[in-house]
Amino acid sequence: MPSTQELATQASSQLQAKNTRIQYPEERHFITQPTAPGTYLGPLDASLLNADKVPLLFKPFTVKDLTLANRAVVAPMCMFSSVDGFFTDYHLVHLGSFAISGAGLVLAEATGVLPEGRISPSDTGIWKDEQIVGLKRIADFIHAQGSKFGMQLAHAGRKASVKPFYGDVPESEYWKDNVVGPSGGNDFQWDANHIVPRELSVEEIQETVKAFGAAATRAAKAGLDTVEIHGAHGYLIHQFLSPISNHRTDQYGGSLENRARFLLEVVREVRANFPAEKPIFLRVSATDCVEHLDESSWDIEQTIQIAKWVKEAGVDVFHVSSGGNTPKQVVEYAPNYQVPFAERVKKEVPGLYVVAVGVITSGKQANEILEEERADLVAIGRGFLRYPNFVTNAAKELNVRVKYSQQYEAGSGI
């Protein structure tokens, strides 16, 4: 039986191991792809009608210094697979698989700019420099495949510190006394499964803005091609925008200009701390989805107005989703259900690139959205989970011969 001293030494070693993050070697071996997987190579069957027309889904897309081989984007999806905010080998395999299979752009999940900004204790974070190395490892791998990589910068606000969908997290890992929002108190608890938030002070708002900027700096150090500010799905920025969750009476509440102030300050701070030659994305919910209720809420008209403002403030690409800010929402979930919102923004805010999302499950469907000029890019979430090779499947649907990863060429059928 181990002695007391031996047990103490063992416990100390275990604690040290938990607090010591893996230092990946600077020199890594990659077989770099001469042509990015997902690149258009020609028609599969040249005898078919209009075979020589390149589907828009497989035409390159460029914004600033970012050029994508195709217009299929992996939407950010929470994986609840992090410890203390660090990206892990799970994220390397998960995100890297999409790059191997030809996604033009891979966006990592909502990543907390502050520890209390995570949705759950199992979410990724980018609030300290030590978190850069694991993120850079993923960026280097994705770039070696020929794909591009970005991440969502996020703060969950009143929807923070909740139980992840899977896995056991000790109670000590939660921050139940530090869940915040634009407004606080029982009236602003999202639902019974969430924590009652406290109201952010003006000083704390300004500190949070700075945290977004510092996170953008770390993302740049990790070599990311873009960052996406998360202003959707009822998280902190959305909470400030919507009259449902923002009842402030100071400069951050009341009028649309005031409710949008926090978002615009975040955009300017991120723009100032991310390389000017690289684009910035913003994801928003176009509506609170409570049109059936007789109360002030967030809607598409206000979304169009802030789209104009954020374009001037430095946003290059506008990613349009919906809902998430109240359990009273009614969402008619169906193919393309959010695409009309993206279409409105694209038509009414010239010069702002737009991403459509919302039950996009096939290559033909994605290409139709682009060909009809309803959006410039399409983002797919669950579709990529079902089929990590979504791009090569889409290519077959559209009579496209597409580049495969060299290691996967044997399965291309070419």
TrEMBL record:
Query: Could you tell me which residue ranges the NADH:flavin oxidoreductase/NADH oxidase N-terminal domain spans?
Result: 57-399
Recorded GO MF terms: FMN binding; NADP binding; NADPH dehydrogenase activity
Q: Name one Pfam family in it.
A: Oxidored_FMN
Instruction: Tell me yes or no: is NADP among this UniProt entry's keywords.
Output: yes
Q: Which keywords accompany this UniProt record?
A: Flavoprotein, FMN, NADP, Oxidoreductase
Cofactor names: FMN
Q: Where are the transmembrane segments?
A: none
- Record-linked InterPro entries: Aldolase_TIM, OxRdtase_FMN_N, YqjM-like
What is the name of the protein in this document? NADH:flavin oxidoreductase/NADH oxidase N-terminal domain-containing protein
Q: Which organism is it from?
A: Entomortierella chlamydospora
